């Protein structure tokens, strides 16, 4: 039986080294606050560059210019603009110290954290670590350090990541994204019904959350 | 959410919002222009 008081479920596909995902996270949080109702958030894995080595030898500027054949000056200008947009939502991106890496272990850690009821805290810590703090988010020891900072057991994290305990969950998320037709992140699925792509303005998130709530109300009234 | 989706999603919001696809994260020049255009249409500029 449907109840109007039930939280609106929001499933978010995102990657740890996706600048729009962190910006979109802040805008979504703003939109959810404007909405004012109960929202249950669950993050899902999306690997933007699964073939990236854990210890990529270079900066994000090197990465983009090499991989995309873009002039360094153009990449620098692009990152400068992203940094400026991040600043508008209170995020101090520091691309001079970002460690481009492979994020599959970070995604496994997010699933581990979910199993311990700390996924939202882990997601925020990983994004901040990557974009703001200049921390490495690809190596198991570095991830265990970040996990310990939010209260997870370091030894348990290392054991789970070394054993690939949550790798199947990461791949299942990626497969589900493909089933939905998701090609880019961040991507938000509201109540299993509405899809919202990209770092939308807060009002867009508030509107769709309100729409989902009003439809639930209509279903209960029938 | 572990089952595969059974119904297609209804896509809402600004279709030109910034996102990362593949290993590339485009800067939303077009959406910024669209915002300016909407403001012009609404006589806000």
What does this structure look like?
- The complex is a heterodimer of chains A (222) and B (45).
- Helix content of chain A is 55%, strand content 11%.
- With 222 residues, chain A is of the alpha+beta class.
- Chain A has one domain (8-221): Glutaredoxin, CATH 3.40.30.10.
- In chain A, α1 (19-35) crosses α9, α2 crosses α3 and α6 runs antiparallel to α7.
- Chain A is globular.
- The mean pLDDT of chain A is 94.
- In chain B, 29% of the residues lie in helices and 16% in strands.
- In chain B, β2 (20-21) and β3 form a beta hairpin.
- Chain B has one helix at 29-41; strands spanning 10-12, 20-21, 24-25.
- By secondary structure, chain B is of the alpha+beta class.
- Chain B has a two-stranded antiparallel sheet with strand order 2-3.
- Chains A and B meet through α1, α2, α3, α8 and β3 of A and β1, β2 and β3 of B.
Tell me, what's the shape of chain A? globular
| Total beta strands of chain B | 3
Helix/strand order of chain A: EHEHHHHHHHEEEH
Low-confidence regions of chain A = none
Order of helices and strands of chain B: EEEH
Taking the alpha carbons of the first and last residues of chain A, their distance comes to 12 Å
End-to-end CA span of chain B: 44 Å
Helical content of chain A stands at 40-55%
Dominant shape of chain B = flat
Number of separate helices of chain B = 1
The structure class of chain B reads: alpha+beta
> β content of chain A, as a range?
5-15%
Structural class of chain A: alpha+beta
- Low-pLDDT regions of chain B: 30-35
Strand tally of chain A is 5
Q: Largest beta sheet of chain A, briefly?
A: 4 strands, mixed
Number of individual domains of chain A: 1
């Amino acid at each position: 039986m449907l109840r109007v008081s039930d939280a609106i479920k929001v499933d978010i596909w995102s990657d740890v080294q996706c600048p729009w995902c962190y910006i979109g996270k802040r805008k979504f949080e703003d939109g959810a606050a404007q909405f004012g109702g109960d929202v249950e958030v669950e993050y899902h894995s999306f690997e933007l560059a699964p073939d990236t080595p854990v210890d990529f030898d270079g900066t994000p500027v090197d990465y983009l210019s090499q991989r995309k054949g873009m002039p360094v000056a153009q990449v620098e200008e692009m990152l400068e603009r992203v940094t400026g947009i991040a600043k508008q939502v209170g995020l101090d991106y520091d691309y001079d110290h970002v460690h481009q890496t492979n994020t599959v272990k970070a995604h496994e850690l997010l699933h581990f954290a979910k199993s311990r009821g700390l996924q939202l805290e882990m997601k925020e810590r990983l994004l901040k670590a990557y974009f703001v703090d200049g921390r490495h988010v690809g190596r198991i020891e570095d991830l265990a350090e970040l996990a310990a900072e939010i209260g997870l057991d370091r030894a348990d994290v290392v054991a789970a990541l070394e054993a690939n305990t949550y790798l199947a969950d990461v791949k299942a998320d990626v497969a589900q994204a493909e089933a939905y037709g998701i090609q880019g992140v961040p991507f938000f699925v509201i109540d299993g019904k509405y899809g919202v792509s990209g770092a939308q303005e807060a009002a867009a998130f508030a509107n769709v959350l309100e729409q989902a709530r009003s439809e639930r109300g209509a279903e209960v009234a029938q | 959410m572990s089952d595969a989706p059974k119904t297609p999603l209804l896509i809402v919001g600004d279709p030109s919002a910034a996102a990362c696809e593949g290993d590339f994260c485009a800067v939303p020049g077009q959406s910024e222009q669209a915002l300016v255009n909407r403001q012009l249409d609404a006589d806000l500029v």
